[in-house]
Amino acid sequence: MADNFLPALAAAAVPSGKGETVELGGRRIAVFNVDGQFYALDDTCPHRGGPLGPGWIEGEKCTVVCPLHGWEFDLKTGACLTVPSRPVRSHPVRVVEGMVCVSVQ
Question: What is the pTM of this model?
Fold first, then answer.
């Protein structure tokens, strides 16, 4: 795909209010669906390395909460609301012909 976007998974595979973890470009990426809008973050919480993909999505705030210790991250920016000095990387996302595509560079 142009612009370094890689196909991650079918949009239909991520129900609204859920996340899925994929491996792209040698990295674990968590892809989230909030009311049809898709977001992608590095899958690893900086606190203790927990996975963000199975975390709880707070749709109104557009955040995900790490299922291990409750750290909360902004899905749009990767900013950590719990400890602001410990963000995760966010990745640009496009949906192309029903596929969620993520730029991991």
Answer: 0.94
Q: Which two tokens stand for residue 13?
A: 């595979």
Q: Average pLDDT for consecutive 10-residue bins of the chain (105 residues)?
A: 82 96 94 97 93 94 95 98 97 97 91
Spell out the residues 6+ positions from residue 73 whose beta carbon is closer than 8 angstroms to its own: 41, 45, 52, 63, 64, 65, 66, 79, 80, 81, 87, 88
Domains of the chain: 2-103 (2.102.10.10)
Nearest to 92 by CA among 100, 83, 80: 100
Vertex 39: Cα angle to 42 and 35 (nearest 5): 145
The amino acid at 100: V
